[in-house]
């Protein structure tokens, strides 16, 4: 069976960040968001992928998939919307049954294993997992269980479509209409494990928290850690990372490949400093994601923030997080969202929810 991965959406909840890159290429713990769905489907026995994306993501996604030992083709989306993206992908497949998966979902591999197993056991034409949601319900695609089967709805339910389907390879005009016309033929199951639809900044923070909470301490033998640095529990330090004198990494936390943590800096509480990122001296990084190649100037304080790849944050910058209006978050905290390649001037104070 082949899988079509949808990774061409506009990412409106993450604007202006997604004007420059596809959200599916954001890194969490050293791998792209897209890779979580690919890895899960690979675990379920699927090794052939068509990824539908845009010019903002094509090259990065191709480079990522080269590392995953799967057969793949990455194509640009030409038709509009989700239905259009699926149609673009179906043109590349001759299989009788197809997995349709959204590339912005972060879920355990077991989620995808359950999807494929449900299809194999049930003999149904369509399989759809559902997930309970309580915050930001209006931002999800919803489904309601009725006496006639499973119906996709816009409101009146707290069960979200979980971003993965198995369907027959056949033509349709509108994907939602296609599902509702076959509501009695749908096999569904409810997934109660970790699941994040990365649509807003707080989703990235939430996914990072969930993933880190399940990891134990892993320190690469090629990393360079000062004798005066302090490394706490549940800390992952990747290859060739450098932790300088008197720095403290208090887990859960992730320090990526070739990343640098400066003298006397503190990285703590569900933070990730991704590949090649640099944190200067005397900084404090809390509940934040520092994307690949970003640089944080000395004496800066970041909390509940997302710093885009190759961006530069000046020294003495403060990013506060409370109180903030969050759509899906479990806590009323949200710092800054800094787009890739942007600069924040020395001494800037950014209010909660600032977007650059």
Characterization of this structure:
The protein starts with a strand and ends in a 6-residue tail after the last strand. The longest helix is centred in the N-terminal third of the chain and has 14 residues. It has a 7-stranded parallel β-sheet with strand order 15-18-21-24-27-30-33. The protein has a 7-stranded parallel β-sheet with strand order 16-19-22-25-28-31-34, with no helix packed on it. It folds into 2 domains: 198 residues, Spore Coat Polysaccharide Biosynthesis Protein SpsA, Chain A (Alpha-Beta Complex); 148 residues, UDP N-Acetylglucosamine Acyltransferase, domain 1 (3 Solenoid). 18% of the residues lie in helices and 31% in strands. It contains 6 helices and 35 strands. Keywords: Acyltransferase, Multifunctional enzyme, Nucleotidyltransferase, Transferase.
Count of discrete domains: 2
Rounded average pLDDT = 95
What is the percentage of strand-forming residues?
A: 25-35%
Give the uncertain stretches in residue-range form: none
Task: Detail the topology: elements first, then pairings.
Blueprint: E1 2-6, E2 27-28, E3 31-32, H1 33-43, E4 48-53, H2 58-66, E5 71-76, H3 81-90, E6 97-102, E7 105-106, H4 109-122, E8 126-132, E9 142-146, E10 149-153, E11 159-161, E12 164-168, H5 175-180, E13 186-190, E14 196-197, H6 201-213, E15 218-219, E16 224-225, E17 230-231, E18 235-237, E19 242-243, E20 248-250, E21 253-255, E22 260-261, E23 266-268, E24 271-273, E25 278-279, E26 284-286, E27 289-290, E28 295-296, E29 301-303, E30 306-307, E31 312-313, E32 318-319, E33 337-338, E34 343-344, E35 349-350
Helix pairs in contact: 1-4
Pfam families: GMPPB_C (PF25087), NTP_transferase (PF00483)
Domain Mannose-1-phosphate guanyltransferase C-terminal: 250-321
Organism: Sulfolobus acidocaldarius (strain ATCC 33909 / DSM 639 / JCM 8929 / NBRC 15157 / NCIMB 11770)
